[in-house]
Amino acid sequence: MVPHARPALDCLDFSVESEGRKYVYSGDASLCDALTALCAGADLLLHWCYRLDGEGAYPAMQALMPTPSEIGRMAKSVGGCGLLLTHIRVRADALEARASTLAALAKSFVPLSGIAEDLAAIDICVLFARHAWIAVCQIQTV
C-alpha cells in the first residue's frame, strides 16, 4: 500500500516479473520510499501523472501529486528504468503541454520514456526490443 493522491485513501502499487523483466505500476501513488523500493531493478514503470511541471496544487496536495520531472528523477534514482506516464488530464493533451511533458522527461530522465495513451495497447516486449535496437544503433553511430 502506498499513499494515494487523496490523503484519506491508500492505493495499491504492484510489480510483475516475467522472463527476466520487471514491470511496476504505481496506482495513483505519490512518490514515497515504498514505491521507490519497489521500482529498484524495474525495467518499466507505469506512473500516474496528473500535475504537470510548473502547475501549482493545493498546498496539502502538492507533495502527493508528482510532476513529470519529479517522477523522472525518482525513476533515474533507481537505475533508470523505462517510464510511461498515465492519467494525463484532458487539458494536458494540448500539443504544447504534451511537448513540455516529454521535454521534462528528456531533461530529467530518459532512456525510454513517454506518455501512455488511453485505450492504447503497448506490447512491452516489442517496446524493449525496439529500445535495445535503438541503443545498439546509437552505440554504433557514436
List keywords for this structure.
142 residues; alpha/beta; 5-stranded mixed β-sheet; 5 helices; globular
Instruction: Please summarize the sheet with the most strands.
Output: 5 strands, mixed
What is the approximate shape?
globular
Structural class: alpha/beta
Count the DSSP helices. Answer: 5
Terminal CA distance: 44 Å
Mean pLDDT: 77
Major beta sheet, strand line-up:
3-4-5-6-7
* Cα-based radius of gyration, to the nearest Å: 15 Å
Beta-strand fraction estimate: 15-25%
Count of distinct strands: 7
Low-confidence spans: 133-142
Percent helix: 25-40%
Order of helices and strands: EEEEHEHHEHEH
Sum this structure up briefly:
The chain is α/β, with parallel strands linked by helices.
Description:
With 142 residues, this protein is α/β, with parallel strands linked by helices. Helix 3 (68-77) packs parallel to helix 4 (95-108). Mean pLDDT is 77; it is low at 133-142. The chain has helices at 33-39, 59-62, 68-77, 95-108, 124-141; strands spanning 2-3, 10-11, 14-18, 21-25, 44-48, 82-86, 113-115. The longest helix has 18 residues, at 124-141. The strands form two sheets. Strands 3-4-5-6-7 form a five-stranded mixed β-sheet, with helices on one face. The relative contact order is 0.14.
SSE blueprint and pairings:
Blueprint: E1 2-3, E2 10-11, E3 14-18, E4 21-25, H1 33-39, E5 44-48, H2 59-62, H3 68-77, E6 82-86, H4 95-108, E7 113-115, H5 124-141
Parallel strand pairs: 4-5, 5-6, 6-7
Antiparallel strand pairs: 1-2, 3-4
